[in-house]
Amino acid sequence: MPHYRPNALFVSLALLSTPLIAQEAKTPTTTFGKIERLDPRLDALIPKSAVIEKLAEGFDWSEGPVWIAKENALVFSDVPMNTIYKYKAGEPLATYLKPSGYTGTVARTGEPGSNGLLLEPESKRLVLCQHGDRRVARLDGEGKFTTLVDRYEGKRFNSPNDGVYKSNGDLYFTDPPYGLMKKNDDPAKELPFNGVYRLKKDGTVTLLTKELTYPNGIGLSPDEKTLYVAVSDPQKAIWMAYDVQTDGTIKNGRVFFDATKSVGAKKGLPDGLKVDKAGNIFATGPGGVLIFAPDGTHLGTIDTGEATANVGWGEDGSALYVTADMYLGRVKTTTKGQGF
Fold first, then answer.
1. Are the beta carbons of 90 and 73 closer than 8 angstroms?
2. Alpha-carbon span 177 to 195, nearest angstrom
3. Which end of the chain has fewer CB within 10 Å, C or N?
4. Which CA distances in Å does 293 have to 172, 221, 226?
5. Do residues 272 and 64 touch, judged by C-beta distance below 8 A?
6. Closest residue by Cα to residue 284 from 297, 303, 299
7. What is the DSSP string of 15-75?
8. Each residue of 145-187: pLDDT tens digit?
9. Which residues contact 308 (CB under 8 A, 6 or more apart)?
10. Integer Cα distance of 323 and 133 in angstroms
11. Do residues 175 and 160 lie in contact, with contact meaning Cβ atoms separated by under 8 Å?
């Protein structure tokens, strides 16, 4: 997902000396932003007493939160800093993995680190969308990666960004150009489009669509019949929905929600998303985290006040972790995410 702040192409040296602050979850706690309610149905998902807790801060661009149950902790990316951090209540914020997305030896700026993070369904090992290395990889030990996929028809991906697993083990993922230094104009770009793909368990890679300008966050409905894809294009800031066919391919693409009119007036673009067990979509975009009912109704927004990159379910499945630019936040909900 793109880093929206003006210094997007440069790693701030000042940031290297900025302390990262993590606090134990307790009451009272530091909060930020607000929750905007547009439809009464939101009250069944987020209680009226809910706040956005500030758990940690000081990041360049926080991304890709995923809960690791065996560690009772959340890990998340800082994309420009090529680092994954671990947040565990009651403990200091810790570096979990560095480098996280670029293992090359030539120094570079931009967005080289890991972006979206997820767990392999069976092994529960960490899977990373690695911008700098232009691949989807599995972490098999400290600093040891196994490449799951890095090419389509012999050409290197742009910079895999986010992914979601289907229950049969197929991985659906997006490949925009944000990890390339010059984005679409980078001479290292080998594919003439930005695609959405499926990686089967047997290693077969299928291009599902190349029609989206900047495919970004991705998710599946609980019945796995609908695939949602965010498009982080300021000229057409939309979320698409597709019918998933029995063979795993997609068709009948349609605009699920259009937020283009909010671009500029509110911070952020369509970015990462997650779906709860009831099929409600929690999608980062202009204004924070937009919450949609399965029928496409905008129920409300977790308005962080910052460009917001992604969300992830954690703890017992009802805690929604939010990566919002320099912050890691959390909202206690009354719903649960898929997989819990």
1. no
2. 10
3. C
4. 22, 11, 13
5. yes
6. 303
7. HHTSPPEE----SS--B-SEEEE-SGGGGGTS-TT---EEEEE--SSEEEEEEEGGGTEEE
8. 999 999 999 999 999 999 999 999 999 999 999 999 999 999 9
9. 267, 268, 271, 284, 285, 288, 289, 302, 322, 323, 324, 325
10. 23
11. yes
Q: Is 42 helix (H, G, I), strand (E, B) or coil?
A: helix
The average pLDDT across 281-300 equals 98
CB 282, CB 289: distance < 8 Å: yes
Token couple for 22: 């993590």
Domain boundaries, the chain: 13-332
Beta bridge pairs of residue 56: 22, 328
Nearest by Cα to 82 from 66, 98, 94: 98
Cis ω for the linkage preceding 19 (within 30 of 0) = no
CATH of domain 13-332: 2.120.10.30
Nearest to 59 by CA among 106, 11, 103, 26: 11
What's the rounded Cα separation, in Å, for the pair 198 and 112?
A: 23
Q: CA 123, 86, 340, 41: dihedral to nearest 10 degrees?
A: -150
Strand pairing report for 114-119 and 250-258: unpaired
Residue type, 91: E
Tell me which residue of 338, 303, 340, 294 sits closest to 324, measured CA to CA: 303
**pLDDT tens string 270-290:** 999 999 999 999 999 999 999
Q: What would the two tokens of residue 200 be?
A: 């089967």
CA-CA distance, 197 to 15, in Å (whole number)?
Answer: 35
